[in-house]
Predict the 3D structure of the following.
Amino acid sequence: MSTQRLTDSQVAEFQQRGFVLLRGLLDREECELLLNSLVNDPAVQTGALSRRDGEGGVTKLRVWNQTSDDLFGLVGRLPRVVEPVEQVLDGEVYLYHAKVTMKEPRTGGAWAWHQDYGYWYNNGCLFPLMASVMLALDPCTKENGCLQVLEGSHLLGRIDHGKVGDQTGADPERVQEAVKVLPLIYCEMDPGDGLLFHSNTLHRSDQNHSDQRRTTFICCYNAARNNPYKEHHHPRYYRLEKVAETALKDSAAGMTANR
């Protein structure tokens, strides 16, 4: 698969709307490799966290704060994932952290409205020169709790955040007013699709009331020139070593050959 560079119109869309949908960043085989890794890797199962939404739902998370050479570590270093982020942030980036979110059928929890920079501001990142790529590993639909975004909300600037259940959410009064004037977009995606969104874009998701699982992998990036001024469990700047576009399949083939 070749590197996917954004067109000028896609970059403009990101700047205006705060997000851009990128179809087919991963192919079906790559999605299956990642899903199988989740099932077969004991470290993923034992290292998973749970986040309750305060309404009876639970979302499982697995977070990586460092790059690695396992399958999930390779995803965040693929040129087709990294280079669109470099385009919209206008320069070199590094992987700030990555996470799998797992919403099980019928029990998967909701996420409150929030901005990622609402958290990362407190980690010593001076500027919102940060963005994320959410990759769908399962179909993401309205029924199973796909991501929702407020179009253009990144232009609101950073909003104060506070506790909502086990989560941290944006000021409800501010969000209520924003919802009145900004379009709400349901980001339905097929497996392999990616959503590139700004760190100040307001987003949320509903509980999963369907019979279908919803698994996503999110790679979060910081601009190299936005090096945090204090230590945190998310890393300061380091040079991100990109891998070959075939890295996922090459790695999987190597593991199979060594069995």
Q: What stands out?
A: The chain is about 25% helix and 25% strand. The two ends are 27 Å apart (CA to CA). The CA atoms of residues 47 and 62 lie 6 Å apart.
